[in-house]
Amino acid sequence: ILNDLDDIFGFGFGKRKTSQGRKKQSYYRPENGTDIYQTVTISLEDAYNGTTLELEVPRYVICDACGGTGVKSGSESKVCPTCGGTGEIIQNLGFIRMSQTCPTCGGVGIIQEPCEVCNGRGLVIKKETVKVRVPPGVDNGSKLRIPGKGHSGRFGGVPGDLWIIINVKPHYLFERKGDNLYLKVNLSVAEAIEGTTLEVPLITGKTEKVEIKAGTQPGDKVRLAGKGMPKLKQSGYGDLVLDINVVVPSIKDLSKDAKKCVEKLKNEQKITNRFYKSEWGDLRWKTEEKNHFTW
């Protein structure tokens, strides 16, 4: 206990270690390097297939000139004139002694001529080419760890890691939600009524024939199992979901014959369930000063 009090307040209890020895050990102890975070942007196709990137990564490495010591080679060490080699400045405040790290030598106790290359830091910045393998199935926010490719440590400390954060560019055609891909499909009124066969594009660059059944409605979904994105760190694939929309032409754009067909269809098609409950929940009416509805 006495020794602990001595370390904290400098009262002089017990057998005290020399300040110079303690500060030197603290200053030169190994310091681990910090991690580096770098964001890269890839296409949806690269996220599907996987890819290999070559990145230029600026990182701190050991200074070759001083070997990481931060001291100029061949320079002589001198006792710090400010602290007398103790590495700390002592202030007596009555019966309490307060100590602080010497501002001149940084707590080392000696003055050394700094390395001219790294300015005494022991590390220099250097660009390094790092190959990164991006696995299939990565998504926005996916993180890839490359051990030991962060900043180098000081005085024998281990280097940090390089973390690659993935950003996937929006695709001009497909929308991604998890492992599934979504594709909006426009049908003509005739195609929706009669049904049709479509050549649907896939993320692989190929196409697949898909049968659209007769009577397809706007908002219907057609699911192609296994045609979505690969599952990261798992086997299998997500699905490709076709989101159907029916394009209704303007009556002014139709020919006379087409208008006659529309009129005939109007007379033949009878709507028996024109009003129905919303799929989002009950439609509840509330009367206040003005009538309105809330979900």
Can I get a quick summary?
The protein is an alpha+beta fold. It has helices at residues 2-9, 19-27, 44-49, 189-194, 256-268; strands spanning 36-42, 51-62, 78-79, 88-93, 96-101, 110-111, 123-134, 143-146, 162-168, 175-177, 180-188, 196-201, 207-212, 221-224, 240-247, 284-287, 291-294.
Describe the model.
Strand 4 and strand 5 (96-101) form a beta hairpin. The strands form seven sheets. Strands 10-11-15-14 form a four-stranded mixed sheet. It has a three-stranded mixed sheet with strand order 1-9-8. Strands 2-7 form a two-stranded antiparallel ribbon. It has five helices and 17 strands. The radius of gyration is 36 Å and the shape is elongated. The model is unreliable at 1-26 and 281-295 (pLDDT under 50). By secondary structure, the chain is of the alpha+beta class.
Low-confidence stretches: 1-26, 281-295
Please report the number of helical segments.
Answer: 5
Query: What proportion strand?
Result: 25-35%
Structural class: alpha+beta
| Total strand segments | 17
Q: Numbering strands along the chain, what is their spatial order in the largest sheet?
A: 10-11-15-14
How do the helices and strands follow one another from N- to C-terminus?
HHEHEEEEEEEEEEHEEEEHEE
Helix content: 10-25%
For the largest beta-sheet, the strand count, sense and barrel status come to: 4 strands, mixed
Question: How much is the average pLDDT?
Answer: 85
Q: Choose one word for the global shape.
A: elongated
Radius of gyration: 36 Å
N→C terminal distance: 69 Å
